[in-house]
Amino acid sequence: MKRHITEKELIKYQFKLVSDIRAEQISEHLKSCSDCRELAKQLKQKFSTLDLLREETIVPDKLIKETVKQAKKPVQQRFISFRKSTGLGAIAAVLLLGIALLMSSLVGDKKQEREIAKNLIVSDSETGLDEGTQTTRNLLLDSREPAERKIADSRLRAKRPASERITKEVIPDKPPFAPASAIELVTLPRRENVQITIYNSADLTLVRERRNLTLKKGWNWLQFMWANTLIDPTSLVLEPLEQTDKIDIQQLVFPARLKEIGRWLIRSETSGKVPFEITYFTSGLSWRAFYMGTLTEDEKRMCLEGYVRVSNNSGEDYENAQTRLIVGKVHILDRIAELARRQYPYNRPGWLLSDERSESVAGGKFLKDKGLELNGKLFDMELGMLEPKEIKKEGLSEYFLYTIEGRETIPQSWSKRLISFTADDIEVNSLYKYDEERWGSQAIRFMAFANDKKHNLGETPIPNGDVKIYGQTGEQGYLSYVGGTNVKYIPVDEEIELNLGAAREVIVEPVLMNLEKENFTFDSNNNITGWDEVRTWKIDVTNTRQLPVDIEITRGFETSYWTLEMKGQDVSYEKHDATHSRFKTKLGPRSKRSFEYTIRIYHGKREETGTNIKLQKNIFREIKNER
Amino acid sequence: MQSTDKKLIDAHCQGSPTAFEELVRRYGASVLGYLQRMCGSRELAEDFFQETFKRVHEKAYTFRGDSFKSWLFTMATRIVINSQRQRKQLKFISLNKKTEYSNVDCEKLETADISDNSHNSSDRVAVEEQKEQLREAIESLPDRQRATLILAYYEQLTYPQVAQVMDCSVGTVKTQMYRALRTLAKKLGEFNREAK
User: Which of A57, A417, A538, B3 would be a feasible disulfide site paired with B33, CB 3.0-4.6 Å?
Assistant: First the structure.
């Protein structure tokens, strides 16, 4: 081998980095080449310096024991020894001194400081126990710091002892900026409690809901979203129910470019779960009262059941809600449904949607009718086996407040029927009325009673609503539909007369029997100036029912100059008003009665000389003479 | 020896109170020396030493009985390299760096000079100077080269064992070793020239 070995190869040879074959070749070469042997010797000498550091390391027994002890501890407590490094020790001392000074300047009252520290420790220990809560807090409450910083912070917090963490948590004066980012991570704290108060007259519902929110000490952003609901965002109010002195709701921000989102800025001096009440107005919730009356067989008494049907078309499910209903009209500035549909909460005024859409969302007829179908099923499923809930009623300023006992779940697009009251043995008066001018040539059935204690009612006003009256027929008490109507709001002690519609079993037939004109008067030119018109009417009244009936017949004359005569008949009559007279009679079961009356109507000059006018004039004169 | 290591590990996993301590005593000097050479600081080395054996304590059940020494040094290497990566971001300057490594401080050297006043003392100072330069040269090596050099040269691990520790091939280990030696050769040559 004539070629010399390179230094590289010699190094590799010396440290056995070459293959065995190559090592053998180099070894052979070194035997014969003095130059290479010299170079190898120099290299060996050079690398022998490495042996200077080949010292025997002695492990102190103390270190071994300490190592064994530390290894057996569940949590590592010490990683870098400050004790042994004056540099690190000095830095640690400076840090501790700085923190102590900062704390003493921030918190003057040491007692309060201890309390805050105590609270934090409690909350920390709570979060330690409840990992889910901790996760919730991290997700819900956005400190708006860069992600890297957050991660670093969380790592540091995990390593630092609790007491050290307390001293570092100082709330900055300036609140964090809330970027209008559309992509957020939030948790959904469930409603703990919700109360809805429905003002039916104005498509207005006040919602008060309670939710437990997890706050961290410092600034918190709370995001509230109401997409696809009919909430009025301008009415949003957030209030803490506990620790009110430590929690300050600073502002409600509606971020630009984001629809149907509001963010509350909350400054909290405490951390952990705090109950909050969120209040707002919404539309789309409505309620209707309706009644079912069941008459006894003799139709003299009635059982009346009042119901309330609550419909939810607000876009939100209200679970286990305490439901309150307001009777009476309220005055509002804006329609909530319109406010809710605004792109931005404080839009320019007058930006309205079409009436068509507002009707459909506000719970129009179609949905309500559909709700009635669902209603029965819902009632059967949820209330059928339960005792009916009481609806408490109380006066509220100008309105009347009905509170439904217990709690109800009213999902979106559902209606729910609830029993409002039941009153038995209400004395009712059935009356058939005949008035051609109002109802044509058919008798109308009426039923009258009063909202007073005598009629086993009178505790509260009765809200307006539909009434359906059923009668019992047959020995088995089958119900038959008698008639229905709509009643207006009935105050206490007021009478109510229910129009049950046309009565086919009671027939009233007026027949004109005679018509004469007489007592003509003339002027100097022999022109007619007045006359009397005399009509004789025969009224046939037929009752085909098996019950006796009271009938009231009203006849109109279209003039106030008239006199009426009846002779020897069992029918009473009275002058109802200037132009009408009213006849009252009773008919037995399956009976018929006829009566006649003669009406004399004065025309022209005869109006002045007619009987009634003469009488009136005489009375007027007497009064004048007395004066 | 390996079987004994395995027995100790098994005993430790089965709850033996002394097995773990026995392992610490058996490999303590080797691990501490390695860590000390790797990080250049006795106190840091002690911390890494504790951390290494803590990890051994926790992960003992994962040991599958191939080579305990390699497994132990793997852990120590990971700890020291990871730690040094973090430390690079925040550099501490030790005021007593020159004396900490050799356990011989300047005060003692001066005392020796005054009391002995002989050639031995001047030689000793020169040796200490040489050691310090060597330490600096080794410390200046990249982490993996340094670890390879120390494991192979000072801790006497075979190249396959080093490859196991470094989690790479034997060829890679040899390359790393050669590069480390080449760098040192240059620096050591400079030292020798300065010394002359």
Answer: A57
Q: Between chains, do A56 and B43 touch, taking CB under 8 Å as contact?
A: no
Q: Is B61 on the interface with A (CB under 8 A)?
A: no
Which of A64, A72, A85 has the CB atom closest to B57's CB atom? A72
| CA–CA–CA angle A29, A33, A34 (5° rounding) | 140
**Domain B5-195 belongs in CATH node 1.10.1740.10:** yes
Question: Closest Cα to residue A183, out of A142, A126, A155?
Answer: A142
Domains of chain A with CATH codes: 7-169 (no CATH), 183-282 (2.60.40), 290-330+366-495 (no CATH), 506-626 (2.60.40)
Residues 79-118 of B with CB under 8 A from A: 92-95, 102
Three-point CA angle A7, B170, B35, nearest 5°: 90
Q: Do A64 and B24 touch (CB under 8 A)?
A: yes
- Given A8, A64, A70, which is nearest B25 (Cβ)? A64
Q: Do B32 and A71 touch (CB under 8 A)?
A: no
Rounded distance between C-alpha atoms, residue A182 and residue A180, angstroms: 6
Question: What pLDDT does A583 receive?
Answer: 93
Give the HSE-up count for residue A309: Cα atoms under 13 Å, Cβ half-sphere: 25
Q: Please give the pLDDT value at position A552.
A: 93
Task: Say what the pLDDT of residue A599 is.
Answer: 93
Walk across the sheet containing A528-543 and list its strands: A506-522, A528-543, A591-604, A562-565
User: For testing the chain A interface, which of B9, B16, B23, B24 should be mutated: the one with the most A CBs within 10 Å?
Assistant: B24
A515 pLDDT more than 90: yes
Residues B11-25 pLDDT 10s: 888 888 788 888 888
Per residue in A107-132, pLDDT tens? 444 444 443 333 333 333 333 333 33
pLDDT tens-digit map of A575-585: 889 899 999 99
The beta-carbon neighbor of B181 closest among A11, A55, A84 is: A11
